[in-house]
Amino acid sequence: MRYKIFGDKFPAVTIQFEAGESVYTQSGGMSWMTNNFDMQTNMRGGLMKGLGRVFSGESLFMATFTAQAPGAELTLASSFPGTILALEMNGSTQYIAQKSAFLCATHGVELSTHVNRIGAGLFGGEGFIMQRLSGTGIVFVEVFGTLVEKVLQPGETLKVDTGNLALFESSVSYDVTTVKGFANVLFGGEGLFLSTVTGPGKVWLQTMSPSSFASQMIPFLPAKG
Known about the structure:
The protein is mainly β. The protein has a single domain (2-217), classed as Double-stranded beta-helix. 13% of the residues lie in helices and 49% in strands.
């Protein structure tokens, strides 16, 4: 399997398969493909796992595309302006990602839900439910804006504005802290809480926040008559 990520602010990935290779994605995620694929749609993993995916921002049904001949090509596009990140997983590292980050993956990769503790879920900006990626293979994830990778040493902590945390290795601990100072809270523009991540492990940050992007678009939406 080979792949090419292309595009600037609205990226897409084209995957070229050998016969018998396959990927799965959420229903409706395909942009275009050659005429030599078998497509099967089902609730991958059963009803309970399907419902878990719904809470983590994905669809109940997943589509599997299996190449019927060598050289078959499948293209999937990002659903928002940003970056597509390819992670080649070897089974030893798991990743925790924001809601709706998952784009597609090979069959050895498991997409499941990750539940944050109550405090982090209420105030950290990522919510109670995030996505957990585990297993072996290749997974493609979507990131808002430009992607920045940080490597945190043991005990090293990074404070992140709400919504700018895209994903992190499961060895990284995730929590929230309170912004100090009355004036900072009222006039600093950062809100009352910040997400904090503590190493060891890799963290991927995004320069755009989904909630901030949505709020910026609201004034340009047509008003209901």
